[in-house]
Design brief:
It contains ten helices and eleven strands. The chain is an alpha/beta fold and 296 residues long. Among the domains are: 85 residues, Arc Repressor Mutant, subunit A (Orthogonal Bundle); 109 residues, D-Maltodextrin-Binding Protein, domain 2, CATH 3.40.190.290.
Length: 296
């Protein structure tokens, strides 16, 4: 059993589909099935069971997958430790990053860091912020970058904050806002086992209840801020989105939300990490680099 076998089992756990697991592994489905058959012969037990709704691991398969993941994690930690024993900034930095940050903010930063430390490689997982927090708790990643305020008892650093804005095609009267069609952002359901309610959604609800006694008139629900913006551009209603998604080139009416006391509502982007992980030179240098690139 090797690293490839471990990946096969993990992808089957996550996807519950031979086809989807094969796609993620860049394998053909027959090749994946053959490899599973070899594992079943090696361990002498059935590892998968096929149903009309998908492919699932048997109890024996689940036990083997959990063992393989634990073993692989321990091996990764040992590799990190050995590569950093002499304080050489070398090896693979494992990052979990909120999707927007990974798309727009992270690439130039990684390029700059790689220029400083050319022996560094990156493993970047883009996911929802709750999933990133879970990955960090399970020590599957070294550093997490999340949007919004999520429970985290260890080290954190504020990278930046941004306003939360109401956007519409034309200026609107806030007094009649509950009567107007609302393009509502609904956060995609996370795959993470430990669900954390959306801080963004809680913030919007708190603002709404402070200003209005009636609920908004929701015209449609979408799961991407960019989609919200496009709907607004076509005059289908107003929406409330983080300010980072709106630019003057969009040509939209934009209003930063404020509480009744005049305080502007902001959304934070945090870098989360564990203090013990700074013993690894690669993590220590990256955390310092990010703090330098985002002065408070």
């Amino acid at each position: 059993m090797n690293e490839k076998d471990t990946a096969i089992l993990q992808h089957l756990v996550e996807e519950q589909s031979l086809t989807k697991a094969a796609e993620r592994l860049y394998m053909t489905q027959p090749a994946l099935t053959y490899r599973i058959q070899l594992l079943e012969r090696e361990f002498g037990v059935p590892l998968i069971v096929k149903h009309a709704k998908g492919t699932y691991l048997t109890p024996e398969g689940e036990a083997l997958a959990a063992y393989a993941k634990k073993t692989q994690d321990e091996l990764n930690h040992m590799k990190d430790y050995l590569l950093n024993m002499r304080s050489r900034v070398k090896g693979t930095l494992r990052l979990g990053v909120a999707s927007y940050y990974g798309l727009y903010k992270l690439p130039p930063l990684l390029k700059k860091f790689r220029d400083l430390y050319p022996e560094v490689h990156f493993s970047v997982t883009c996911a929802l912020s709750p999933e990133i927090v879970d990955s960090l708790m399970e020590q599957e990643i070294h550093v997490g970058i999340v949007r919004g305020d999520y429970p985290w008892v260890e080290s954190r650093f504020l990278l930046h904050d941004e306003p939360i804005c109401l956007i519409s095609k034309e200026p609107i009267d806030l007094a009649i806002l509950p009567e107007l069609p609302h393009i509502h952002y609904s956060e995609p359901k996370a795959k993470a086992a430990r669900q954390v309610s959306s801080h963004f959604g809680q913030t919007i609800r708190a603002w709404w209840h402070e200003h209005y006694d009636t609920p908004p008139t929701i015209a449609m629900q979408v799961d991407a801020y960019e989609t919200c913006k496009e709907m607004v551009k076509h005059g289908l209603g107003y929406s409330i989105v983080p300010g980072v998604f709106v630019s003057p080139e969009d040509g939209l009416y934009t209003l930063e939300l404020k509480l009744k006391n005049g305080e502007r509502i902001r959304r934070n982007t945090w870098m989360l990490y564990r203090e013990p992980s700074l013993e690894l030179a690669i993590v220590d240098r990256f955390v310092d680099f990010m703090k330098t690139e985002h002065p408070s």
